[in-house]
Amino acid sequence: MDLRHSDSDEEFRKELRAWLDTNLPTEMRQPEFWRGKSDDERFEIRREWEAGKARAGFAGIVWPTEYGGRGGTPTMKAIYDEEMAKANAPSSVNPLGLAFLAPTVMALGTEEQKQEIIKPLLHCEVIWCQGFSEPGAGSDLAALSMKAEQQGDEYVLNGQKIWTTNAMHGDKIFTLARTSSPEGGKKHAGISMLLVDMHQPGISARPLKQMTGASEFGEVFYTDATVAVTDILGGEGNGWATAMLLLSFERGSSAISQYTEFHKQWEEVVELAQTLDRDGRPAAQDPVLRQKLAQSLVDLECLKYHSWHVLTQTSQGKDLGFEASMTKMMWSDTFRRVSDTYESVVGLGFQVPDPREDLSLTELSSLAMWSRSCTIWGGSQQVQRTVVAERVLGLPR
Amino acid sequence: MQFQLTDEQRALQDAVRSYLRDRFGPDKVRALYEDPTSDGVPADLWRALGEQGWLAVLVPEEHDGIGLGLLDAAVLARAFGAGTVPGPWTSTVVLGEALRLAGSPEQQKSLLPGIAAGEVKGAVALLTPGSSTPSGAPAQASGGTLSGTLAMVEYAEVADSLLVAAQDGLYLVDPKGSGVTITAHETLDRTSRLSTVVLDGAAGDKLEGSSPEVVQELLDRAAVLIANELVGLARFSLNDTVEYDKTRVQFGKPVGSFQAIKHHLADLHMMTVMAEHAGLYAAHAADVDAADKQVAASIAKAKASDVAFEVTGAMIQYHGGIGYTWEHHAHFYFKRANRLQHTWGDASQHRERIARLVIDTAQSSDATGVAPSGTADAQGSGVAAGAA
Q1: What is the pLDDT of residues B266-311, one digit of tens each?
Q2: Which of A81, A131, B4, B81 would give a disulfide with A173, using CB separation of 3.0 to 4.6 Å?
Q3: Residue A261: its chain B contacts at CB < 8 A?
Q4: CATH no. for residue A35?
Q5: Is the pTM of this model over 0.90?
Q6: Domains with residue ranges and CATH for chain B
Q7: Which of A82, A216, A250, A323 is catalytic?
């Protein structure tokens, strides 16, 4: 066992830190900076900053340089995730493109697709959305009914996608649609992944308001929208396999960035517990709350150890396979438990953003609500449990 | 980044597993259950522990040991948990650690080679029942003699040397000497033997290097070993249950196909994986003297205690009626998990310690918190993001 990184990996950390010191203004690291700005304003500030970061060479860490990446190691990617989270850097405006589409293109895309997709994605010139879920196809994704009918060298698309992150900011959307009717009633067959331009008359998007009040996702309507038959990722009729591969990339990330973020959240909850009064003493001295706070740290540290485990495997070029579902479950469960500990500590304070003049709970309360989404998107906990039970433990279907 | 066992540690793991599979199978464990009045130490097993070097693992080479680290010992503890191995392995190892950390050269010379060879069995009494910190010493020392009641002492009847914590430090006591009365209990987990030891003016040989810090280090090291033993026990119990539920058919289907069962098994698997990670890291943290080694020890023990008890309970439940019978081995695991989760501090005590170590030290100086109970570990460290 040796938890040190190599000298060259640590050199990369120094370089990134130095760049962040110079190029991430202090005020952008503070929550106050983002308060009071509209969703659109925030998006544009983040997009511009992220593009600058890509120009400086801090994007696509593990992807080859010929496609605009950095050609680095999995460890460098983990260091990047950790440092970005530590620095309170703005989150990516292109998360679906970065975490899902790009690795899939690298694995299955044609040379042309790699050239066309990766670099503009990294530089935030093209913002990607994911068109998977439909009103009638959530956990049962293969029940999707979006139709793609071939007319000449185009597909004509009709249907609706929902829960689409960045629906109002997207330029393109990787869309699962039926390019042929399922053979013999096999609903996984006949699906293709199409790379669709959102800037066309046949596409319209509408925001959906989340329980936080923000509108980070929306609905996308396809009415005779078109896409070239060549704009397929992974081959015609292979959409299901392509989608499963795509989802495995996010599930299998090392989770070090999540650990770093949730640990910061936990520290803030501890600080809060030290200042809030509970029956004449700090909440942090309440024996039951102490147990919850400590249990949250147990969960968090176990998540960190797991991220080391994942990094050890990926550094050796091993495929995590279905074990990747566990990583997603572990971090989303941990996030929710830290958030629930916050809810216990803050009590009624959850109801108002500013229970005291010197206390703003906007960000912590927002995080606590956001944690409720992470156990749903990208495959709900219940779906993941089935995957782990059947594919990892080998329990029968 | 190598968060995994080395090839040598894997080889050790394979060696101990294959020994247990071939030479100390479930029938041998059952024999102990059927004979509660035996001393609980199968002679051939104990001899093998000595011959294989599995008692020498932490003993320094200058005392005829192997001088490896806690992680190597943790590998053994995991395998012993999986096999519900009886005998005073842990208490003998902890005795050796006490000598290594606090014994005089003469004390070390007189006992460590015998420990390494399997010729000396140890018993330890560092805590009163219900306590988990160095302030919980069970004996009182006065003029070189010790008095007090030591409860729940494992394998006192067979021990050659008894390590006792008194208010002023650690002592070695001859269990067969005068002033020592040992009363054996019928023990629920028959892969162990618990006794009450009454000291009444028993002669004590003080370990002059002992201090509250040393006692705390011993408690941590013991907790890490037990955490790993619980992890091994949980992993066996889970895998055994999964295999059974693949084949047991009800309603025309294997019961493991029902989501009510398979989802819980998936959760238990993930909890067990987490406990495995925590056990390994805590041992490694001790070996490299990481800044967060104390927190890591408590994390490992808290996690493993909770997980093992839940998994072994599920083992009974998901075997159905057969899991509740004497003839099935599920109760071996359940009873052992119960014993181990409450030794060297249980989950809630370790969570409270985590709070003392991390939350209270993060407290701002003007806060008016209730002072944590007076323990030696309150000066501990926070959690480091990464250790060497």
Answers
A1: 999 999 999 999 999 999 999 999 999 999 999 999 999 999 999 9
A2: A131
A3: none
A4: 1.10.540.10
A5: yes
A6: 7-210 (2.40.110.10), 213-364+375-379 (1.20.140.10)
A7: A250
